[in-house]
Specification:
Elements lengths: L4 E4 L3 E7 L2 E9 L3 H14 L5 E7 L6 E4 L9 H11 L4 E8 L6 H20 L1 E14 L1 H13 L3 E7 L3 E7 L4 H12 L6 E9 L4 E6 L6
Antiparallel strand pairs: 1-7, 2-3, 3-6, 4-5, 4-6, 7-9, 7-10, 8-9, 10-11
Helix pairs in contact: 2-3, 4-5
Length: 222
Amino acid sequence: MEAAYKTVAGPGRDEFVEQRSRFIGYVCPVTTEAQALAFIEEKKKKHWDATHNVYAYILREGGVQRFSDDGEPHGTAGVPTLDVLQKSGVTDVCVVVTRYFGGILLGAGGLVRAYSRGASIALAAGGIVTMEPCLQMEIVCDYSRYSRIASLIGEKGGVVDKTEYEAQVRLVFHLPPRCEPAFRQALADATCGDITPSEIGCGFFAAGGNIAGGNTAGGNPF
């Protein structure tokens, strides 16, 4: 399985004013270059009247890293924005920092600090999370055993993603591979070996969160 990685939990936005210039930082999780470019274009259309729409993005796929100064002096906008992403250790992330010029020149150093701050507040607004490779599994059981099994999943490091109540109860859950042996043993002990989980897929999950870029049963792992 692939290694864990850091990204943002979701889209985020924040802003500040520096020497009358208004800076708006946007962030969005992305997994492809097409998604990153679409996000950038969306913000450019939204802020068509802005002085600059600077961007940077990093993707796991192909190790892609791109940035643009969008008319600011070379090295004062796109590079600092990308640098914030790199130092934060995030990937599959796109940031756009929009500037409305306020009439006061900031100088090279001022621009670097402003765009770095714009990227930083955007990341903070999106919320950095660690995505961990997990197994996605299911268990079908009688109602009499449902409560105990659901509790056992949480006790052994798993998270229930979906519960279906029909003739029997179907629990779909994920857990890190390192937790699987202990969970299987505990489940066997609790059910006298009558119930075993089925692996239905794998993917990346935030701790206690939802699947991100996962594969369903029958697909290639990661």
